[in-house]
Amino acid sequence: MKKLALLLPLLFTSSAFAENSNQNFLASLNLGIANGDKVISDEKLADGDLMIGYDLAYQYKFNDKWGVEVGYRHSEPEGTFAALKAISSLFVGTLELDYANSIRAAAVYTHSFSDNNKFDFKLGVQRYNVKSTLKGYVPVPVIGGEEQPINTISVSDDGTGLYAGLGWRYQFDSGFALGASLDHQDMDVLNVTSLNLSLGFHF
């Protein structure tokens, strides 16, 4: 999140360089819901977990309608959810989601309602890395009849999945762009649907 905070001043100072352009840069904050298909020791990776993160994307437009986008996203469980799982792991086994990183390449179709109001449709592929940790007691008695302390196993899943999104943005004449979008990441072991609030500029 610190990276995004450092980037925001750059967006404000750089957006007035050009008006008619075919290149766009977007920085977004995202809030999503994660559901995991992966199960280890009867523990599901995620079940309606709240996720927060950031997204950085570059778009190149071939014309007014078609373009391509490459992007990077980092998301992790929201603090309250992460804390509750950490506490529960002291008593029972839990599979904790640490973070999900992805890079994507997508085709972008833009429908313009006016010179400033635009609606984007995105469809592409992504390469992802999902990091999780399995925590819990090992049921082996030790001296005093107590169970062995927490056993921790780190798990990393890499793969390729689909990315789809749609959203609205308002393109100011100065070069700024403000927008909101909804997208879905299919990462096999984890599916995340996110609402994104973005700030960008074209150059």
Written description of the protein model:
The protein has helices spanning 2-14, 79-88, and strands at 23-36, 39-40, 43-44, 47-61, 66-77, 94-112, 117-141, 147-171, 176-186, 190-202. By secondary structure, it is mostly beta strands. It has a single domain, classed as Porin (Beta Barrel). Strands 1-4-5-6-7-8-9-10 form an 8-stranded antiparallel beta barrel. Strand 8 and strand 9 form a beta hairpin. 28% of the residues are buried.
Strand content: over 45%
Total helices: the number is 2
What is the CATH class name? Mainly Beta
Main beta sheet strand tally, sense and closure: 8 strands, antiparallel, barrel
Q: Label the structural class.
A: mainly beta
Spatial separation of the terminal alpha carbons? 25 Å
The whole-angstrom Rg is 21 Å
- The CATH topology label is Porin
> Major sheet: order of its strands?
1-4-5-6-7-8-9-10
- Number of structural domains: 1
Taken in chain order, the helices and strands follow as HEEEEEHEEEEE
Uncertain stretches of 5 or more adjacent residues: 1-20
* Mean pLDDT across every amino acid position: 79
Helix content: 10-25%
Number of strands: 10
- Shape category: elongated
What is the correct CATH architecture?
A: Beta Barrel
Name the descriptors.
203 residues; mainly beta; Porin; 8-stranded antiparallel beta barrel; two-stranded antiparallel ribbon; 2 helices; 11% helix; 68% strand; disordered N terminus
